[in-house]
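Quick question, first post here. What does this chain look like in 3D?
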Amino acid sequence: MDFLNTNLIFYILAYLIGSIPFGLLLAKTFAGVNIKEHGSKSIGATNVLRVVKETNPSLAKKLGLATVILDAIKGTIILLIAQAYGVSEATLWTIAVLAVIGHCYSIYLGLEGGKGVATGLGVFLVLIPIPTLIGAIVWGFCAKVLKISSLSSLLGLLAVIIAAIIFNNGLGVGSNAPMYLISFIIFYKHIPNIVRLIKKEELKAV
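> Answer (accepted):
Ran it through. Tokens below.
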């Protein structure tokens, strides 16, 4: 029972920490702007960068970078603590899923949130590091060439999935289901972007 309670505590913490809207907090605190009311209204780094750049370009880059790092760290920190505590691989993947759900459906924002890319990166980096690094390289290349944040992120995620199937098939739990679930959430949150991409209306990176 104690083991089950320990897992439950980690699950709750993963969701609550994952729910912290760092992009929103940073933009409000340092730029005095509510990014939920401007741009794409997303709480992610791309919208932080785009909205804050309108008034303070140098600050925008700093806040955008800080948002990416913090959104990723909130996925990694609870996993690293859980790993140190010695929980099972299945528990770690459940924590990862809940952290991404927290970011995308934050309890602090009425179950609204971001698109999960940075938080997904954070949890994948801990659990499937090699595929994640491959995905990061693909993302960086696509971002440089295509200059479309959403498309680059989705292509990077696709690269992670393919690399994980090749190098980590089963993910230590006998199934790729947790990775697919995280990926589905991220792709689902990007549906508006995908629609704009099809219509050739998606904005390029600023």
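The longest helix spans residues 57-85.
Residues 2-198 form one domain.
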